[in-house]
Write a structure and sequence with these properties.
Elements: H1 10-13, E1 27-28, E2 40-49, E3 67-74, E4 80-82, E5 84-85, H2 88-92, H3 103-119, E6 126-130, H4 138-143, E7 147-151, H5 155-164, E8 168-169, H6 175-185, E9 188-194, H7 203-213, E10 214-225, H8 227-232, E11 245-246, H9 249-256, E12 261-269, E13 275-282, H10 291-299, H11 308-328, E14 333-336, H12 340-348, E15 359-360, E16 370-371, E17 376-379, H13 381-386, E18 391-393, H14 400-406, H15 408-412, E19 416-419, E20 425-427
Parallel strand pairs: 6-7, 6-9, 7-8, 9-10, 14-15, 14-18, 15-17, 18-19
Antiparallel strand pairs: 1-5, 2-3, 3-4, 4-11, 10-13, 12-13, 16-17, 19-20
Helix pairs in contact: 6-7
Length: 430
């Protein structure tokens, strides 16, 4: 492939990397979100980081915001959490994440929707999803025969509900939103919220909403990234302001019990490089808990979170040194995937437009925008095909099998992928 050096846009490269907003807009926690303990141990201090999903237009580049980002762990209930909370309106009102741009997620939620309706005999009954995004789960739930309602504050959800015709309560999910759904549609056989249970500062407000809305024998089924996989795969790039919490099964049990819910089943799933699907029911409901629940909670006692910080620094330095060496050798480097992970990875590793030419992404909502903080342009797939780099950092490394299958032409021409985690490695070398 070409060894021609491609210089970044000088106007972009000269911009300040961060411009912090007043700290009064950030709330810093001193107690655990789940159990209220003040026994929080700092694991990683990322410094000031931009909002991971806050992709910028060219006109916004001169007024970028950055907020402190620190990851801690509670010794009481084992919840990992960020200490610094940004107001939700800063994050989710103009939210650009669209679930259905990824084939892996489409297939995953298609299976989940049909399985849930069959397992819970929910055909003809109400299923409510909070954080429904573009309806990626609501569609298969409806296809399987359930009545569906979404709850989500984002413009992505609003557009999808209008296009697809499913009811939406455009709000953050809490008791008030749940009461509105209940008044308009009745009680829910299933309440579900996937990959959003970690997105709020007040976890108890969500659970109170669930108990407001759930039938006496209904279930709360939700998916979250699993803390055990975050630690094992050193997933420092999944830590950002939009993700307030990183759950263990231990912490989830502590979260649900005060509200009269208990975990009755859990399933390990590969989505987002390691997640769990948790099923909870009311304490009085006649449901037998699966033995796997107690087994997983017991196994969590053997985790070693204190090693996480040194592992993060090792991966960070290795990736930065590799990219700098490639650029010194005249190789062109791009990023592949403008998800939230990419914002944190590029900023935390100090990979700006002098090192990374562009980031390619599949979502039209991001075309022509820039990765915040580092100000790297986001481009559509045709740019990657017409101006392929020598190396592409797989910033969406959690979709490695899908990306490799899709980009066989890039690899066949001699292109190589840099996979940053769980160990830095190169795909495509012979």
């Amino acid at each position: 492939m070409s060894e021609e050096r491609s210089e970044p846009d000088p106007a972009i490269a000269a911009l300040p990397r961060h411009r912090g907003l007043p700290r009064t807009r950030v709330t810093t926690r001193t107690t655990c979100r789940t159990c209220g303990s003040d026994q929080l141990t700092l694991l990683v201090d990322y410094g000031d980081m931009p909002l991971a999903g806050g992709f910028l237009t060219r006109g916004e580049l001169t007024d970028q915001a950055a907020f402190p980002l620190r990851l801690a762990r509670c010794s009481g209930c084992t919840l990992m959490q960020i200490l610094d909370s940004v107001p939700p309106a800063e994050i989710f009102t103009q939210y650009s994440y669209v679930s259905s741009t990824t084939r892996t997620l489409i297939e995953h939620f298609a299976r989940m929707g049909h399985e849930l309706v069959a397992q819970e005999q929910a055909a003809g009954r109400l299923v409510v999803e909070f954080g429904c995004n573009d309806g990626i789960l609501l569609r298969p739930l409806r296809e399987a025969g359930a009545r569906v309602v979404g709850v989500d504050p984002s413009d992505v959800a609003l557009r999808a509900s209008r296009e697809d015709g499913w009811p939406l309560v455009q709000a953050y999910f809490d008791e008030k939103a749940a009461a509105r759904v209940k008044a308009e549609h009745g009680l829910a056989r299933i309440v579900t919220g996937n990959n959003v249970f970690a997105h709020v500062d007040d976890l108890h407000a969500i659970v109170r909403g669930v108990t407001t809305l759930l039938e006496p024998d209904g279930v709360f089924v939700f998916e979250v990234q699993y803390q055990g996989d975050l630690l094992a795969l050193v997933q420092y790039d999944t830590v950002y302001h939009e993700h307030a919490c990183y759950h263990s099964l231990t912490s989830l049990a502590r979260q649900l019990e005060p509200h009269g819910l208990r975990i009755v089943d859990v399933k390990r799933i590969p989505i987002h490089s390691g997640s769990i699907r948790v099923t909870a029911a009311r304490l009085g409901a006649p449901r037998q808990a699966s033995p796997i629940v107690a087994d997983m909670i017991a196994a969590e006692q053997g985790w070693r979170p204190e090693e996480f910080a040194s592992q993060v620094e090792n991966r960070r330095q290795t990736l930065r040194n590799l990219v700098r060496d490639l650029r010194r050798a005249g190789r062109r480097v791009a990023g592949y995937g403008a998800a939230g992970r990419s914002t944190i990875l590029l900023n935390f590793c100090g990979l700006g437009p002098d090192l990374v030419e562009y980031v390619v992404d599949m979502s039209p909502l991001r075309y022509g925008k820039f990765v915040p903080g580092v100000s790297i342009p986001i481009v559509p797939p045709d740019v990657f095909q017409e101006r392929p780099p020598d190396y592409a950092i797989m910033t969406a490394w959690n979709y490695e099998p899908e990306i490799v299958r899709k980009e066989q032409a890039f690899l066949a021409r001699g292109g190589r992928f840099i996979v940053p985690l769980p160990e830095v490695r190169i795909v495509g070398e012979t």
